[in-house]
Design brief:
Strand 1 and strand 2 form a beta hairpin. The protein is about 75% helix and about 5% strand. With about 350 residues, it is mostly helical. It is globular, with a radius of gyration of 25 Å. The protein has helices at about 10-50, 55-60, 70-80, 85-95, 125-160, 165-180, 180-195, 215-245, 250-260, 265-290, 295-300, 305-315, 320-345, and strands at about 100, 105-110, 115-120, 125. The chain has 13 helices and 4 strands.
Length: about 350
């Protein structure tokens, strides 16, 4: 069996690890800065390029009943009449040190990290995101455990039993899981298991109201977990199967078998480990996106998470909330990719710390 790459003495390898981590951290910080600039440009610069005036942007905060003079005063108070670089500077400063918003009757302070201030609800955006984070976090992590277990397990077995009835049936189900949208499978699952059989709680159940009872918490999220995991496990099963079929034909797998290693060790220690690299990449992206709000699942099941709040804010024209959720979702994706980069060298010994 071919060994891993020659990494040199332990001291050199440790220095390479530290350099690799520092380089990835610096890249993540730069990427976060770029994300903040792009997000700000989408919400404030692009509308100005499209022909919207400062008063047009301020009208989203004053409502439809406000007059032209009142709308212009709000535009001045919010700084929409200032140069774009000054507006972005205040935005970045708010993320780091907080920011004050002149609402008219009073000046409201938005503590750091300030992702905006909802003038409709008269509250800063970040505390509202934190309050809804447990629901989104519970949904994403619980579903991730299920889809990783079932998806990877099914993919490995299908690859080892290629062409059998299990392989064809599981891949057929996986194709259905990828094809069916979450709002279809979610509503179907609700109608059957919640309203017809009364096995799981109906939509709109808040899992955080279960207190410290983990069984009630899991029971409230069981159907959303399974529905969301069915969508993702299907893709992971197909990806794992393809990776395993390619890896199990490699020379180092034949060498491992020739050395007398058990089939179980060959599959888990050598085959699966090498096939996990694309799985880790996709998992980092998927989990990062879900932590930013599982929009369709939360909306379908009425879960009061970040995703549902974003959809409701779009309907209510609450722009600061949409901006804040977009920023948080983008940050989660960047951080997830950073973690994936750091895990590459651990999972796949063929990856150099370059």
């Amino acid at each position: 069996m071919t060994g891993g790459p020659d990494r040199g003495p332990p001291v050199t390898f440790a220095a390479d690890v530290v350099t690799y981590i520092i380089r990835r951290l610096i890249a993540a910080v730069i990427l976060l800065f770029v994300v903040s600039a792009v997000t700000f440009a989408i919400f404030f610069l692009v509308p100005r390029i499209a022909g919207f005036t400062a008063d047009d942007l301020a009208s989203r905060y004053t409502g439809k009943t406000a007059g032209a003079e009142q709308t212009h005063e709000m535009a001045v108070k919010l700084g929409f009449t200032d140069p774009m670089y000054e507006q972005y500077g205040r935005f970045v400063k708010g993320l780091v040190a907080g920011r004050d918003f002149d609402t008219g009757p009073s000046v409201e302070h938005c503590p750091a990290p300030c992702f905006g201030y909802s003038f409709i609800k008269q509250v800063p955006v970040w505390p509202e995101i934190v309050g809804r984070m447990p629901v989104t976090l519970s949904l994403a992590l619980g579903a991730a455990i299920i889809w990783l277990g079932f998806g990877i397990g099914t993919g490995v077995i299908s690859a080892l039993r290629r062409g059998t009835f299990f392989d064809r049936a599981s891949m057929g189900i996986a194709l259905a899981g990828v094809s069916l949208p979450i709002f279809f499978t979610g509503l179907l699952a609700l109608s059957v298991f919640s309203y017809a059989l009364d096995v799981t709680p109906p939509g709109g159940t808040d899992p955080t109201e279960s207190g410290n009872n983990p069984l009630e918490w899991a029971h409230a999220l069981l159907l959303p977990w399974i529905t969301l995991a069915f969508l993702y496990s299907a893709g992971y099963a197909r990806l794992t199967r393809a990776g395993m079929l390619e890896t199990m034909n490699e020379d180092f797998i034949r060498t491992a078998r020739a050395k007398g290693l058990t089939e179980r060790r060959v599959v888990t220690k050598h085959g699966l480990r090498s096939a996990l690299t694309p799985i880790v990449t996709i998992f980092g992206l998927d989990l990062g996106l879900l932590l930013g709000g599982a929009i369709l699942t939360e909306k379908t099941f009425g879960l009061p998470g970040i995703g549902k709040w974003a959809v409701d804010s779009i309907q209510n024209n609450d722009l600061p909330v949409v901006l804040g959720v977009t920023m948080v979702g983008a940050f989660f994706v960047v951080i997830a990719n950073l973690v994936v980069d750091l895990m590459y060298a651990v999972i796949d010994p063929r990856v150099r710390l370059g």
